[in-house]
Design the sequence.
């Protein structure tokens, strides 16, 4: 296991035998916080070197390990005292404006002591939930983000053309239909297709982000499922992460069908056929 996690768990199991419960809960919260921050830092490095899927799954894997390890420890909630200086802003502003004296600063400028409840296990659960949501969002964007953006452009262009009532509807439709058709073509390409050259079409909506993989939609989903198995080795957890991604993919494909079916352009019929085939294959892959 990851060194920081292993040492944290080892220290906690030793500490619980030699300190009283209140002190142990406080120390456990500090240790778990620092361990979680260390895991997050490592996930950022992995993300930069190997890609977001590896960074997210690394963090999810070891947060799950940490949660499992500390589940047997009696870590209770405790209250942490903090100094609250929020009211000082008004006091200092009054002093600067000349409407208050130095004596009022001394009288009213004392910080308040605020107690907040700390729960290490809830904090860990919140971090795990957030990381899972980030993984689902990011992988959905990798798989169908380009198509979703192309469809959005197509819808907006057609709405603009209709608002003008004349002139540019065909021009807008042709431009954006070509973009959507090209994105769909790339999604249909199989992961092992070596004959197709990468598209040079710029992605206007994702300027500044890393270049996405050239593998097709089926290859991308298989790649995700494979990495989930490698990192998590837990079928229930794998499904919990894979099912929402598949749901997002199906939603975008359905939106594409609904939008393209309204068009009378000649290529629309072929695009609808491709979309139906893609939907069927995605459903079959993960039944």
Sequence:
């Amino acid at each position: 296991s990851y060194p920081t996690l292993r040492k944290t768990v080892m220290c906690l199991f030793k500490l619980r035998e030699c300190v009283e419960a209140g002190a142990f809960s406080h120390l456990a919260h500090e240790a778990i916080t620092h361990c979680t921050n260390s895991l997050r830092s490592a996930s950022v490095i992995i993300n930069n070197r190997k890609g977001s899927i590896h960074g997210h799954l690394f963090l999810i894997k070891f947060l799950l390990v940490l949660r499992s390890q500390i589940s047997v420890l009696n870590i209770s909630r405790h209250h942490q005292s903090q100094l609250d200086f929020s009211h000082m802003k008004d006091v200092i502003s009054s002093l600067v404006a000349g409407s208050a004296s130095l004596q009022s600063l001394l009288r009213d400028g004392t910080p308040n002591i605020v107690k907040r409840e700390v729960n290490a296990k809830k904090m860990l659960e919140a971090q795990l939930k957030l990381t899972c949501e980030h993984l689902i969002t990011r992988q959905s964007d990798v798989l169908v983000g380009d198509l979703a953006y192309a469809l959005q452009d197509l819808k907006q262009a057609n709405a603009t053309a209709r608002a003008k009532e004349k002139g540019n509807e065909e021009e807008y439709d042709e431009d954006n239909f070509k973009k959507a058709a090209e994105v769909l073509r790339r999604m249909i390409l199989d992961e092992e297709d070596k004959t197709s050259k990468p598209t040079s079409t710029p992605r206007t909506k994702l300027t500044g982000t890393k270049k996405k993989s050239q593998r097709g939609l089926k290859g991308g989903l298989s790649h995700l499922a494979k990495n989930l198995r490698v990192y998590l080795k837990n079928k229930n957890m794998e499904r919990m992460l894979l099912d929402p991604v598949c749901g997002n993919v199906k939603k975008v494909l359905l939106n594409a069908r609904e939008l393209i079916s309204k068009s009378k352009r000649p290529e629309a019929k072929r695009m609808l056929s491709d979309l139906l085939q893609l939907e069927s294959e995605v459903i079959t892959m993960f039944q």
Remarks:
- The CA atoms of residues 17 and 268 lie 70 Å apart.
- The longest helix spans residues 120-164.
